[in-house]
Design a protein that fits this description.
Cytochrome Bc1 Complex, Chain D, domain 2; single chain; four-stranded antiparallel β-sheet; 641 residues; 27% strand; 12 helices
């Protein structure tokens, strides 16, 4: 017979158990609740980021706000349901799956009802449904199948990191119909990091040159065949002394920035002009400056350190900061800064008033003949001398010289009254004495004698009220959009659109709005006719005719209806099977006149792929349609005419 283990005195040993006291219980409960909260926050981030990244290959943080809102609402609905269930856990030992799903369904019913009745909310039903199913799985997994919560958390962390990580270029393709062309918009995000609210873009041969708001230069190349874009930062920092300004002025340097860039390549050499602010430390004042970088294209592309910036012009006078608290003494957002070359020796510079307009400051610089602010200047590059071309401007950001020699400018109004102006030497455009806009938060402009009128001064060619946040402009000159040739394309910030304006007999006969969906800071027409937009988010958007509907490119030059005479190109009706150079009323190039035979499908395909290769010297200026399927559709379309 065995005896219970005991001590040395023969007494039985008594096992002792330590029961947790109230403080220990509270500590355990706190840790458990903390773990639940951390887990649910992780699940919320997972639902917001992973489904959309997996289904669209586009991270949530680069999607438009209108698409983020419903997804954020769904993630918050999940978090709300989870918090309700965590709170309910205080009152019951274990939550049943019926109670879990009842709370979950109730919260999401409210969310879906709100999405249905809220106007202008855009969302993908597919993405929302996948996210909803994942949310249901996570809520059940955590509150009903708790044993796997640690493994699930690990998987969610890995998925979130994969969905938000990487620095690869993101390309988004959208489409926009217009009166004459259906457009393809290729939006390249994450092209240039940390770029915002400033800078500009210029054509540089077949490439593009971008300057960021803080003075970094990037050479950008676009491959039309592969639809790929790449950017290389060049080691030429614009002499923009933002740190000196912030240190001396005790002010944030947000609006102390570059405004525009203008690049020119000729005979193997490059000239780059940049307009920007510059702080003069000793007198404690700032100017609008134009700096120039010049050298061979080879040295420029190689980042040759011997290439140095030089000062072309400083606007006068050097301006002291306005009186007032930090953040209100410097109006760098009214820099203006548009650049354009009249010829190789004469440069145009548009200078904004920096808010020295007689209302926001005592002095009225745009009407002061001794000041160069609120003016468009003509700078003679050989001598360095400048002269005032026009005066009375507020914030002229866009500037272009048209093919016929006309000078065009876009100018921000105050609250309304954004302007498109034809620039005529010696003209006064009236600011700040007249404007078609009003003071912010008011129904009039304090200095205007007749609100809404422009008497006594040069009228704008066109004005937008309400304001669209007009920025830059170009004149279309290439062959990719022949119907648009010599139309003005005006970019906007607030309106997030392009405006195609057609001028006839010195007036705008119509303005067509083309939605883009991004704040457009600047735009340029490439060597191939494509349009490239620089946005305030540091993204680039390439615009081209939609290949599926690129028949409009042909129709722009070639009529296709019976009985219609040839125009810029011969009539293409019944072209398939017709002898080459058949239309005797049209003057063909010698290259086509020398060819014999008929337009077969194969010969048309070769011609469309490479016009100059098929018939060297042909007047057809397009680069060629590289995609075989697009050529096939074009030929199929021509066969139906």
């Amino acid at each position: 017979m065995s005896c219970p283990a005991g001590g040395g005195d023969g007494e039985p040993r008594v096992e002792k158990y330590d029961f947790p006291d109230d403080a220990t219980k509270q500590s355990l409960m706190t840790k458990r609740v903390s773990w639940k909260l951390v887990w649910q926050l992780l699940a919320t981030v997972f639902l917001l980021t992973v489904p959309v990244a997996v289904l669209t290959e586009i991270p949530i943080w680069v999607r438009p706000l209108r698409e983020i809102v419903p997804l954020a609402g769904l993630a918050l609905a999940y978090l709300s349901a989870a918090l309700i269930l965590i709170a309910g856990g205080y009152f019951t030992e274990k939550l049943t799956w019926v109670w879990v799903m009842l709370v979950f369904a109730s919260v999401f019913a409210v969310l879906f009802l709100m999405l249905l009745v809220t106007p202008r909310v855009q969302f993908s039903a597919h993405i929302l449904m996948v996210t909803f199913v994942l949310a249901a799985f996570l809520i059940i997994q955590f509150f009903v199948l708790e044993r796997f919560s640690g493994l699930t958390a690990t998987v969610m962390v890995a998925a979130v990191l994969m969905a938000g990580g990487g620095t690869e270029l993101i390309k988004i393709e959208t489409h926009a119909p217009t009166a004459f062309y259906d457009l393809r918009l290729l939006e390249f995000r994450k092209v240039i990091p940390q770029a915002k609210n400033g800078g500009g873009i210029s054509r540089l041969g077949k490439d593009y040159l971008v300057v960021t708001f803080d003075g970094r230069l990037h050479r950008v190349r676009f491959d039309a065949r592969s639809k790929k874009l790449d950017s290389v930062e060049l080691p030429y920092q614009v002499p923009l002394n933002r740190v000196d300004y912030a240190t001396d002025a005790g002010d944030h340097e947000h609006w102390f920035r570059t405004a525009d860039v203008l690049a020119e390549e000729a005979d193997g050499r490059v000239r780059v002009f940049v307009s920007h602010h510059f702080w003069k430390r000793e007198p404690g004042c700032f100017v609008a400056r134009v700096s120039k970088l010049e050298g061979s294209r080879t040295a420029f592309d190689a980042g040759d350190p011997s290439l140095q910036w030089s000062t072309v012009h400083d606007a006068s006078p050097c301006l002291k900061l306005k009186q007032g608290p930090p953040g209100h003494r410097f109006a760098g957002h009214q820099m203006g800064g548009g650049l354009a070359l009249l010829d190789k020796d004469r440069l145009l510079l548009a200078v904004g008033d920096q808010e020295f307009d007689g209302v926001n400051a005592d002095s009225d610089l745009p009407q002061d003949p001794a000041a160069e602010y609120g003016k468009i200047l003509l700078i003679h590059l050989a001598s360095g001398q400048s002269e005032v071309l026009t005066l009375g401007h507020r914030n002229p950001q866009g500037l272009v010289v048209g093919a016929q020699g006309s000078i065009w400018s876009t100018e921000h109004g105050p609250q309304g009254g954004d302007e498109l102006n034809r620039i005529r030497r010696g003209s006064n455009y009236g600011w700040p004495l007249v404007t078609l806009g009003t003071q912010y938060g008011s129904t009039s402009w304090p200095l205007s004698q007749q609100p809404g009128e422009h008497h006594g001064y040069e009228l704008p060619l066109f004005a937008w009220t309400p304001a669209i946040g007009v920025s830059s402009l170009i004149e279309v000159r290439g062959d990719l959009f022949p119907i648009w040739r010599e139309d003005l394309l005006v970019a906007s910030l607030k309106d997030s659109a392009l405006w195609r304006t057609r001028v006839r007999d010195d007036r705008v006969v119509y303005a067509e709005r083309i939605p883009v969906g991004r704040r457009i800071r600047d735009l340029v027409e490439g060597a191939d006719g494509r349009l490239v937009l620089w946005t305030d988010q540091g993204d680039l958007i390439v615009i081209e005719p939609d290949e599926v509907t690129s028949f409009a490119t042909c129709i722009g030059c070639h009529p296709m209806m019976e009985g219609v005479d040839s125009a810029l190109g011969p009539n293409l009706r019944n072209v398939v099977g017709r002898p080459i150079a058949f239309d005797q009323a049209f003057q063909y190039s010698d290259a086509l006149m020398r060819l014999e035979g008929r337009w077969t499908v194969d010969r048309l395909d070769q011609f469309l792929a490479d016009p100059q290769g098929f018939a060297p010297g042909t007047l057809m200026q397009i680069e060629g349609v590289k995609e075989a399927d697009v050529r096939s559709k074009l030929i199929e379309f021509l066969q139906t005419r």
